[in-house]
């Protein structure tokens, strides 16, 4: 009975060796697949993160250009269907509205400057003509009238200096 007991243990030990080797192969294969899958996911995450950082960088540079007053900087189209793509489209639309508002403002200022300059120039011409035909009395009114052309010229220059550069160029 003792011999048969030992023979059964040998068979049990032999069958466990095959199971142990199968488990070891399974563990190694599982570890290799997990490491490979982790590396693939890490590379994919890095790619997505770089693309996301690039898109945010484009928006950031565009906003910096707007802060500096450069309304002609164009924002590349972002076809993303996420929040950054939506933000990009909204910023592009707002930039276009700012461009149109700036152009309208410059047109208004140019027209206002023209409307201001015309009557002031007519007044100056009238004063100059009045000085040419004065009777030479030399009283205080004559001195006041003689100062008016210079005062009008200073007034015109001061008000035109407040206009935007685009409006001054339009004159």
List keywords for this structure.
171 residues; disordered N terminus; mainly alpha
How are the SSEs ordered, and which strands pair?
Elements: H1 2-67, H2 83-132, H3 140-161, H4 165-170
Helix pairs in contact: 1-2, 2-3
Overview of this structure, please?
- The structure is a single chain.
- The protein is built from 4 helices and no strands.
- It starts with a helix and ends with a helix.
- Mean pLDDT is about 80; it is low at about 1-5.
- The chain has about 170 residues and is mainly α.
- The longest helix has about 70 residues, at about 1-65.
- It is rod-shaped.
- The chain has helices at about 1-65, 85-130, 140-160, 165-170.
- Helices cover about 85% and strands about 0% of the residues.
Number of helices: 4
So what's the overall shape? rod-shaped
Poorly predicted regions are 1-5
Our Rg estimate from Cα atoms comes to: 43 Å
What is the strand tally? 0
Q: Give the CA-CA distance, first to last residue.
A: 122 Å
Largest sheet: none
Average pLDDT reading? 81
* Amount of beta strand: under 5%
Structural class: mainly alpha
How much helix is in the residues? over 70%
**How is the quaternary structure best described?**
single chain
- SSE ordering: HHHH
